[in-house]
Amino acid sequence: MFARRIPFALLLVSTVAVAAPPHSRRVCSGDRIRCLAQVRVDDAGNSIRPADDGSGLGPQDLWAAYGIDPNITTTPTVAIVDAYGYANLEADLATYRAQFGLPACTRASGCLTILNEQGSTSPLPADPPASDDWTVETALDVDMVSAACPLCKIIVVQADNENGLFDAQMSAAAAKPTVISDSWAGPEQGNETQDEPYFDHPGIAQFFASGDYGWDFGGKGPAYPSTSAHVIAVGGTSLYKDASARGYSETAWSESGSSCSLSIPKPSYQGNTSCTKRAAADIAAVGDPATGVYVYNANSGGFIVVGGTSAATPIVASIYAETGHGSVTAAEIAQSASTVLFDVTQGSNGTCGNILCNAGTGWDGPTGYGAPDAAALAGGSSPPPGGGTGGGLAVALASPADGSTVPELFQITATATGAAVVGAFVDGVEIGQTARSPYVFTAPHMGPGPHVVTVIAADSADDQVQAMVEVVVTEPPPTADSPTMDNVGCAAGSGVPGLVVALALVLVRRSRRRASRVASITL
């Protein structure tokens, strides 16, 4: 349906990798809440243009990297919440879409809607001051929705300024979009539970940028609302072309945000995160300005190269919208990670000394459970709790049941078909594996509260499937002689034991993509 060739030759030679990391400039300067876009600049501080070095990603690059089918014929709606007005928004969007052969998206056609903080089409707020240029952020947002989902409708809700963003979020939800994308954050103040109602919109997935200041918002504190219990936090990666089956590889971007909340309780789906509260991120996509994306913004002189978790967030939101997962939750992303995400296992965003800063197999702070595989997302829904299949390989948890209450040292019983080996994990820590049925394991001592139980089956070709349930342990905390699971390998600065394996493990896809993923059981 859409042209695969990029209209001008300079873009045809775009490459993801660059010889050396370029400089970047943050475009927003809010006192507390700010947008998270960064523009690539040269040594003199001037924005880098497509003609400068041929780098930058267009829609076709994103389609290839994330398995996006631009011809999916559904027309979901992505709402974007930003601050200030943007007089050139529709014209700039038209230029971007025309440049890459994407269909027009206008207010007249009903594809584009622009609302004010109260949810009305007028009056729209004034453009921002030059020192706090949210027009670049908004351009990035609408261009990335266009790139990742060319047929998506777009709603842009413009708050009067940063102080109106929470109210604008309510207006965005009231417009009933498929998903909402938010590329802004501020450091937690410690009382965020009172703000949680602004983000409590069941059935509408809300994707929030996790921050561009590395671990703990650069020392300012956790980045809210990405730590909200109601949202999906999106981190950033560096994306490179390579010779793998996927054709691309990703590492954690050094400035990708990760956080351990001060006040939001730890959700039941999060296991060993080295954090006693809600941890971010949950998922990731390209955000490094050095491997940034093309954006058109007339205020900036035309096409520029932009990055930040502000780029990753609308990309991820649009992929989930167009593949029919607009009501997905962070818990469901965790559960389906092995089937629909590319695990990101390299890179770091700080020196905290554990998985809150260091990428690794499965969940980690900078990249969450990994980057989206749109082709896998479009191919089917997530597996139900307690069971998973892949080709002739299948595994199920016979006990305990999902959501059940269990004592310490409970038994885990699995059934499997076509398996060469079956392993069991609690909160990402391997507790045993066996090559013979019956597949029965005994859970170790652990503290009371929610825990995640996973069994993984692998066949002789090392194809793997998993089944996962959540249980609640009711026994009192173990004694000093019986360490809890939370004490195994997650103290800041300690190494992670060799048996620690993440929950987001490779579910086998009978395609060549397996070569680019990470195996979790060694045969």
Short description:
This protein has 523 residues and is α/β, with parallel strands linked by helices. It has eleven helices and 28 strands.
Sketch the major β-sheet: 8 strands, mixed
Supply the number of helical segments: 11
Content of β-strand: 25-35%
Tally of DSSP β-strands? 28
The radius of gyration over CA amounts to 22 Å
Q: Could you please say which CATH topology of the largest domain applies here?
A: Rossmann fold
What characteristic shape results from the CA principal axes? globular
Uncertain spans: 1-21, 380-385, 387-391, 482-523
CATH architecture assignment name of the largest domain: 3-Layer(aba) Sandwich
Structural classification: alpha/beta
Q: Oligomer, anyone?
A: single chain
CATH superfamily of the largest domain: Peptidase S8/S53 domain
CATH class label of the largest domain:
Alpha Beta
On the 0-100 scale, what is the average pLDDT? Answer: 84
Number of domains: 2
Helix content: 10-25%
| Intertermini distance | 45 Å
Verbal overview:
The protein is α/β, with parallel strands linked by helices and 523 residues long. It folds into 2 domains: 355 residues, Peptidase S8/S53 domain (Rossmann fold); 120 residues, Sandwich (Immunoglobulin-like). It has 11 helices and 28 strands. The protein is globular, with a radius of gyration of 22 Å.
